[in-house]
Design brief:
This protein is 67% helix and 0% strand. α3 crosses α4 (49-61), α4 (49-61) packs antiparallel against α5 and α6 runs antiparallel to α7 (107-118). It starts with a helix and ends in an 8-residue tail after the last helix. It is mostly helical. It has a single domain, classed as Alpha Horseshoe (Serine Threonine Protein Phosphatase 5, Tetratricopeptide repeat). The longest helix has 13 residues, at 12-24. The radius of gyration is 15 Å and the shape is globular.
């Protein structure tokens, strides 16, 4: 598998992508949250925004053997969002909306982040915007 060999060579996008395959149990791989987290961490440690966002989600949920850690999740979401990653933006917005990880509750900042992610086509951000603006979500 090309993704495995490039991930083994330290290529962060391949590490993240392989992590997603383990996370979802796709690509002929078994679902394995521990392996997914290990790969997300390798990618995140190299500054990969998608790896940071997914590792943040793992910390938020306490997945793959990680202890739940909202502060670490928020730190990773910020790193990812600062690089323009939609998943990092929507999750940082959620953290501001819910005052997670030591952040103040700030609906204005949450909406700003949701808009950034929604403009990139992120469906979760679009739904969150509709929710905070009181509109029903768009039909699927």
């Amino acid at each position: 598998m090309a993704t495995r060999s490039t991930a083994d060579q330290g290529y962060s996008p391949a590490q993240h992508n392989l992590g997603r395959l383990y996370q979802t149990g796709r690509g002929g791989l078994p679902k394995d949250d521990r392996e997914a987290v290990r790969l997300f961490k390798l990618a995140a440690d190299q500054g990969n925004a998608a790896g940071q966002a997914n590792l943040g989600l793992a910390y938020l949920g306490g997945l793959g053997g990680l202890l739940k850690d909202e502060r670490e999740a928020v730190r990773l979401f910020k790193l990812s969002a600062d690089q323009g990653n939609a998943l990092g933006q929507v999750n940082l917005g959620f953290a501001y909306e819910r005052a997670l990880g030591g952040l103040p509750k700030d609906e204005r900042e949450a909406v700003r982040l949701y808009k950034l992610a929604a403009d990139q086509g992120n469906a979760a951000a679009q739904s969150s915007l509709a929710r905070v603006n009181g509109a029903p979500p768009a039909p699927k």
